[in-house]
Each structure stands twice: as structure tokens, then as C-alpha cells.
Amino acid sequence: MEAQKLNFWNIDTVHSDIRFKVKHLMISNVSGKFNKFEGRVTTTNNDFATANIRVTIDAASVDTEMADRDAHLLSADFFDVQNHPTITFEARGLRKVDDEEYELTGNLTLRGITKPIALKAEYGGLAKDPWGNVKAGFAITGKLTRKDWGLNWNTALDTGGVLVGDEIRVSSDVELVLQADEEE
Q: Minimal CA–CA distance to 2: which of 35, 39, 44, 43?
């Protein structure tokens, strides 16, 4: 039987991303990402079903490739970064659905409001890079309703509907790197 050992993993931010999409004008999507984030995962051995997860996103790093829209997202109408500079996600494990798929549940805190969310996490596997680092990969997807976190700003359209959709689709490709033995 394998000895129980805590493993500590950090998100490799060079090989990871956090993206989102939201309906615009009810006919298309606007995409964005966050450029600054960090995360820590603790597992028993390499069993991700035992994972404790904490991800912190710098809300001011939002990037939709349009400066005016990004400035609006930083304002009190949306992320209110002056009062809420970070977005956090905390989970206490993954429920293994099969060998490659997990259900990731946790609490998302945005604008000072904490709500539970469920995400799909597809396990890509373990690999050792050319420098001897052990890596694990996940593709994470899900949906959330922005109004649940107080992101209520919108404008009605003359043609009916609204400028910004309520549902936000999130996706993230995450590469974790196993840290050398350390004491917590």
C-alpha cells in the first residue's frame, strides 16, 4: 500500500489560462480572459479526488482586447476592482465521474459575494517535462449567472433583448506543477 503523502501543486501560469464568454446584443459572443492569477492545489499522493484548491484572480487583469470595455468591466458596474480587487475560487476536492472526468465544486467569491458553483474538469493526465518537473493537466468548463454575483448592469435594446447576456461560460486550461517536498 502506498504511503499517504501530501503533494503540493502550483498552477503553471505560463501554460494555463482563465477565459470567459458572454452574449452580446443577443446574437454573438464577447470573449475575455484574465492575465494574472495564481493557484495552489494540495492532494494526497497524486489523487486529485482529495484535492484542496485555491485560485486567486487579479480582477484588474481582465482583458477583452478592447480598452474601453475593459475599463467598464473594472468599474462598479461590473467587477468593482477598487473595492474587490480579487476573485477567488476554493474547492475541497473533486468528485471522480470516470478516469478522465471530474465534477469540481467550490465557492466562487466575486464582488464580495460568495456562492457555490459546479464545474466540469477533464483530467488530461500526468507527465514529466524535459527538466524533470511532474505536471498534471485539466480542462475546466462551466456556466454561471452573472446576476448571482451582483453583476447587474445592462442596457435594453430597441429591437428587444439586452446588450449583455446573463449566462457566462467559463473555460480554463490548467497545468499544475508538483512542488518539491515542502512543509506546510
A: 44
Rg (CA), the chain: 18
- The pTM is what? 0.89
Q: Which residues contact 164 (CB under 8 A, 6 or more apart)?
A: 22, 23, 24, 146, 153, 154, 155
pLDDT at 183: 46
Q: Which residues are CB-neighbours of 68 under 8 A, at least 6 positions away?
A: none
What DSSP assignment string belongs to 67-123?
A: HHHHHHHHSTTTT-TTT--EEEEEEEEEEE-SSSEEEEEEEEEETTEEEEEEEEEEE
Cα separation, 104 vs 173, whole angstroms: 14
